[in-house]
């Protein structure tokens, strides 16, 4: 019970929506397993079992409320929801309608939330079957990785038990309830389902061991073909990941280089970043610490001359810089006042 409470807090603090769906799915699975054995569930309500779990949940809930209060000003306002109200053009779910229009002060933010996020929402909402395609495109490289090697051949060769079928059904329910309603699917959305994935994989190992122990010739052929396919998919995924990580590492390296140059030039800086027209909206240089006034480097977007002068005056005790990261090579000069 204490472990379940800990897991629930982890889910609520990492993936609130997907974690809630997984909690409901696991509750349904528990009810199926304990059907006709309600005495076992009643034992979970004993004082010695329930009080530590309830105390942990109360402490975790109090911490979450305090964190929200310090960040957003309200114990019930999640930072993500505040961000959505300030900048969002559409919700996370394609079933929901568009949000009220927002006046953006920076072109980079408008491009991200309107030219990209809004377009994705309208596309999926107009053709809902695209959500299946997005989910498949995201999950198939994972499902065909080496991690899943024993599962499919085991299913083809041996008859799975009831627990295995329930675990697979729970995974399918999670995908339908938590993944398909999303306008965009990323791999980490699937994270709360990993415990169920482990159950399926371990059961696959068990069934595969039984099939190979029986010296089944068909088992060896099916397993060999599946291993080859999985290794091929793992190789293709690694190549794709390498191409993406190289692009990301270039941006990260450039930012680290600028930070090192600034650290050598003095203790406190204001960097106004001027992006090019075709700059990637996913490479955001404006990442500040929580205490902006107390941070060594303050990053800011280039605005109008009047707005820049106001910013320069507010941070008058800092060295002022103009950064143009989309120039070749990257350009960092003292801001012309």
Query: Which consecutive residue ranges, at least 5 long each, have pLDDT under 50?
Result: none
The whole-angstrom Rg is 26 Å
End-to-end distance: 63 Å
Helix percent band: 55-70%
Strand content: 5-15%
Provide the structure class.
mainly alpha
Number of helices: 12
- How many DSSP-defined strands? 4
Describe this protein's structure.
With 337 residues, this protein is mainly α. Among the domains are: 1-77, no CATH class; 266-334, no CATH class. It has helices spanning 2-14, 16-33, 38-43, 47-72, 79-87, 107-126, 130-143, 151-157, 162-179, 194-213, 217-265, 305-314; strands at residues 269-273, 297-301, 319-324, 331-334. The radius of gyration is 26 Å and the shape is globular.
